[in-house]
Amino acid sequence: METDQILDYQAILAPTDSFHESLESFFADSNAKGCNVTMPFKEQAAQWVDELSPAAKIAGAVNTIMRKGDGTFWGDTTDGYGLTMDLVQHGIQLEGKRILLIGAGGAARGVIIPIMERNPSALVIANRTEQKALTLASLVKENWVSGCTFEELDQLDAFDLIINSTSASLSNVLPSVSEEVISQAEAVYDMVYLPEPTIFMQHAYDLGVKKTIDGLGMLVGQAAKSFSIWRGVEPNCKPVLEQLRKAL
Question: Is 7 exposed, middle or buried (CB count within 10 Å of its CB: 0-12, 13-18, 19+)?
Fold first, then answer.
């Protein structure tokens, strides 16, 4: 749908050693409603704002800043919303499901709260370094969220959905999760996207997984959520996603 919004949205290159100054210069314009922040500035943005959303607190990072009515600044991370929205668009419901989240880095931190809000029956965070998985799981106070190593996954019940939050596919590398664990899933989701199915998606497909999805829809969904935070209306993602898919 058309949102009939009049706005100016453009890329601004911020120096790596003066990001906070760049934010202050941007918001010195009274018409500046908000902005997106990308790597490598997301952690600095979280330190700069006055208030963080629950998801941003867990992530320790912000990709969306909004100026509030009282002049203070609110920071959010919309990646998790983009992920869960894209999953639903693909007919994947999270409620009551067993979910495996591969990786415990920044990408995983950014999506854990929206996943939890969908009320799965279990969320297991698996990482090569066990302590990172355990630390991330400990940030939320739900006994159905846990952390483990890749090797320990073989001892657990099967998962309905496996989400790869690592960037391994960009290097054409598979995460160290056994074929047995992957083959039992109904769907897998790779947060990265490429012109062709990622190595993780192709691997899962070869093992008989019914649905394999990349992260392009997540990219569009997180942008739509940012837009709705600033403007109070959420655009239709479908035509944007179709155009991006053709451009890959």
Answer: exposed
Q: How far apart are CA 241 and CA 222, in angstroms?
A: 12
pTM: 0.89
- Tell me the C-alpha distance between 78 and 49, whole Å: 16
Rounded Cα–Cα distance for residues 42 and 133 (Å): 21
CA 239 to chain centroid, in Å, comes to 21
Q: Annotated active-site positions, please?
A: 42
Other beta carbons less than 10 A from residue 15's beta carbon: 8
Full pLDDT tens readout for the chain, 248 residues: 466 667 788 888 888 889 999 999 999 999 899 999 998 899 999 999 999 999 999 989 999 999 999 999 999 999 999 999 999 999 999 999 999 999 998 889 999 999 999 999 999 999 999 999 999 999 988 889 999 999 999 999 999 999 999 999 999 999 999 999 999 999 999 999 999 999 999 999 999 999 999 999 999 999 999 988 998 887 888 888 888 888 87
CA–CA separation, 40 and 178 (whole Å): 32
Closest CA to 9 of 31, 35, 30: 35
d(CA 233, CA 226): 10
